[in-house]
Amino acid sequence: MSTTAPTPRASVPRTLDVSGTPKVPFTRTVSVELRKMLDTRAGFWLLAVSGLLLVVVAGIVMAVVLANDIGITANGWVQVMTVPLSLLLPIFAITSVTAEWSQRTGLVSFTLEPHRLKIIGAKLVAVVILVVATMALAVALGAVANLLYGAFSGNDVVWNVDGSAFFWTVVNQLLYFLMAFGLAMLILSTPASIAVYYVVSLLLPFMVYSAVYVLVSWGPDVLPWVDLGYAMAPLVGGGPTGPGGPGLEVTGTTYAQVAVATLIWVVLPMVLGGRRVMRTEIK
Fold this sequence. Notes:
The protein has one domain (about 25-280). Mean pLDDT is about 85; it is low at about 240-245. The longest helix has about 40 residues, at about 115-155. The relative contact order is 0.11. Helix 1 crosses helix 6 and helix 10 packs across helix 11 (about 250-280). By secondary structure, it is mostly helical. It has 11 helices and no strands.
């Protein structure tokens, strides 16, 4: 008895057609980037420490104003609450970018979504959402602290939040977050980006610029063109180091100074950093 061998079929090349596969929505990419910023051990503890710092600062200010019978209003509480937010939370903007390289998550991120600009844009939107959310938290805590101050001191509660000053305070916070974001894209290293950011935003203004402001005749005229803090001082209602003091006059030159300082510390790092992100090899 004999059997007939089956005739082999002609090999047909197999192709994977993904033309009909829908693209990942931008909103989903933003939600993923928000989760990546907050849903980690480092993100959780950074957020927790920032919240604890808010409570500690509010408690210290409350004790000082009550002990010395100093009046404070809602506007003052909002200004107090924004200080802790500007100290730690910009690290979120830095790590959202540098984690793709320092923790090598870019191998996954840029494989699932090969359009790097889309991911960078999602990270940028996530940073803006974080700024708005934290400012809303600062306002809420400021309102609670203002009510407690009225209850403990027996003084009338004053709700005098200036709309213009608050708007520019939010803009100021956003610019510093974007500065951190741009420096992170330019450097692509978490420790180096954090160090450079704090040198530029804290050490230079308080250790170098303040001396120049007081000791050099041209300091008050030049510094607002090169430092965001001095440029924004008249708009948010006070000088960053004290000599200018509150109530600085807002003129057309003030807006020009803000534009130039923003160009130097926000736009330029983001343009150069975006160029580097697009060209850097993922390893």
